[in-house]
Design a protein that fits this description.
CATH topology of the largest domain: Rossmann fold
Main location: cytoplasm
Largest sheet: 7 strands, parallel
Structural class: alpha/beta
Distance between the termini: 53 Å
Strand order of the largest sheet: 8-9-7-6-12-13-14
Low-confidence stretches: 138-145
CATH superfamily of the largest domain: Methylesterase CheB, C-terminal domain
Radius of gyration: 20 Å
Shape: elongated
Order of helices and strands: EHEHEHEHEHHHEHEHEEEEHEHEHEH
InterPro entries: CheB-like (IPR008248), CheB_C (IPR035909), CheY-like_superfamily (IPR011006), Sig_transdc_resp-reg_Me-estase (IPR000673), Sig_transdc_resp-reg_receiver (IPR001789)
Subcellular location: Cytoplasm
Pfam families: CheB_methylest (PF01339), Response_reg (PF00072)
Helix content: 25-40%
Strand content: 15-25%
Mean pLDDT: 89
Domain Response regulatory: 4-121
């Protein structure tokens, strides 16, 4: 059975190019195109698509309004199509909160040529979306029901010596939000790689900083890693952990993509294995593919303790599944439980933390 895709975009060119990309794949087909959400609403009833691609900014009905109603009344996998602008990135962050599985960006220069260059990525994201676990949204803003931060660790040694290293992809923006919102203000420093294009990580970090008790920022490179702070890999560069004397530091570089990604989770995890060893705690969350699995195993071999999100709570179980299969994860848990599991481990073993 082919994946049935409905394309919703006010641009006839985008509809045409997206249709060409989808129909060029042997395992998927376009079952309808719509210039606005009103037409899309009828086509959803007629075609019962497996995946909807949705422009974030459209006439007649705002894409976000349509998405909010759709996820409340007829939840289905939605892949947002966004412009590479600050406004586009902020709207896309909101769309992910409302339940969109993932997003792709329109190229800045030649739409037709650029979209064709993206064929493999778009096809992969549609495949991942078709397998995603979709839940009905009961709140207009996801953060409103978030759990309160967990109690403080109250152990300066744990907070300053240990580090939490996080990797995620498809579904990860919301998983990271849920994870960080439970972190107390004295938690160890956190380094995060989320697969996301340039520009979007800044909006993502800003949004998290406004919601969390800890400080969240896009890593610029050269920052000292501090307790109560999280550093997110910028969309254009790998994020790595280094040491400078007694301090942990961030470093960013634009080396070649790893596992087709820059930033790559494997790159971050491997650097944590080398720089922090047993003082690192690894966390791998929802995501498509296998990025992070090999790096997590290296962390384990270097003495780190690692956690993976369980299948039931993942949007896409690819990355955690690969990490578990390779033997890199010590414990597996639901997304809601992971913050407590991580902090419980740190509270129990933090006094044993030693400089490496």
């Amino acid at each position: 059975m082919k994946i049935k895709v409905l394309i919703v975009d006010d641009s006839a060119l985008i509809r045409s190019v997206m249709s060409e990309i989808v129909n060029s794949q042997p395992d998927m087909e376009v079952v309808g195109v719509a210039p606005d959400p009103l037409v899309a609403r009828e086509l959803i009833k007629q075609t019962n698509p497996d995946v909807l691609t949705l422009d974030v900014e459209m006439p007649k009905m705002d894409g976000l309004d349509f998405l909010e109603k759709l996820m409340r009344l007829r939840p289905m996998p939605v892949l947002m199509v966004s412009s590479l602008t600050e406004r586009g990135s902020e709207i896309t962050m909101r769309a992910l909160e409302l339940g969109a599985v993932d997003f792709v960006t329109k190229p800045k220069i030649s739409i037709q040529t650029g979209m064709r260059d993206y064929t493999d990525m778009i096809a992969d994201k549609i495949r991942a979306a078709s397998k995603a676990r979709i839940r009905a949204r009961t709140l207009p803003v996801a953060g409103e029901a978030a759990a309160a931060p967990l109690p403080a660790l109250r152990n300066p040694l744990t907070s300053s010596e240990k580090l939490i290293i996080v990797g995620a992809s498809t579904g990860g923006t919301e998983a990271i939000r849920e994870f960080l919102m439970q972190m107390p203000s004295d938690c160890p420093g956190i380094l995060i790689t989320q697969h996301m294009p340039e520009g979007f990580t800044r909006s993502f970090a800003r949004r998290l900083d406004s919601l969390c008790k800890i400080s969240v920022q896009e890593a610029a490179g050269g920052e000292r890693v501090l307790p109560g702070h999280a550093y997110i890999a910028p969309g254009h560069s790998h994020l790595t952990l280094t040491r400078s004397g007694a301090n942990y530091m961030t470093k960013i570089d634009q080396g070649e993509p790893v596992n087709r990604h820059r930033p790559s989770v494997d790159v971050l995890f491997r650097s944590a294995a080398q720089a922090a060893g047993k003082n690192a705690v690894g966390v791998i969350l929802t995501g498509m593919g296998k990025d992070g699995a090999a790096g997590m195993l290296e962390m384990k071999e270097a003495g780190a303790y690692n956690f993976a999100q369980d299948e039931a709570s993942c949007v896409v179980f690819g990355m955690p599944r690969e990490a578990i299969a390779m033997g890199g994860a010590h414990e597996v848990g639901a997304l809601t439980a992971l913050p407590g599991m991580v902090l419980g481990y740190l509270a129990k073993y933090g006094m044993r933390a030693l400089r490496v």
